[in-house]
């Protein structure tokens, strides 16, 4: 490929929510040669120096539906080819309707922008625990979901179609580096969920998959993003505790087996070419300090 063609093919990417996943994605994109510029948003000005040091053009963008967005800031931020929205809702702290209102506000800004492709990072938490395999088509409306607010947010962004091409990526539980499953359950006694399968994705794969979608082409579809292997919680908890010398939790068999879900990633596998770095959660890389 000639330098001229290569330069023409490069994309400007804006990452709304350049946090634990978004920052890792930004660094991956900057090192890939497929972008001409990467922008990242934060709600804290303290992070701007970190962004600049990594080569990311930083923006402070608070998402307050009551005050709206500052067009003088969001105009330059959304002036990109691809918008990645990676802002997880704070479900435990969130006022009902706030997250979907934030996403409607974001959608209005994107609608006025030159961006042609949008990737919305959602969650497989939208699926109810029905003790069966969960497919993308199982949840299409908020009332079908365990997280109606998240599905309403998906709809707000999907409403950009057909003017924009919008992919919804429902991510399984994000782990890796300093997010270690055993850390959150060490020493617990008589857990009753040890036999249910996990649905996890390592951050390295999550970021690389978003890059693959950008590179291979955003599609107007919803995809589950999950590691293809689903060991049990007890296996994952005991193994990750052992890695760091923590006291492993203990388990007991409940009288009534707890409900669960197993996320299917088949639709993504059939659509995109991607080889997992960490296909098995029992092989995830962890460390006490984040990168």
From TrEMBL:
This is Epimerase. It comes from the Bacteria. It holds the Pfam family NAD_binding_10. Transmembrane segments: none annotated. Residues 19-215 form the NAD(P)-binding domain. Gene3D superfamilies: NAD(P)-binding Rossmann-like Domain.
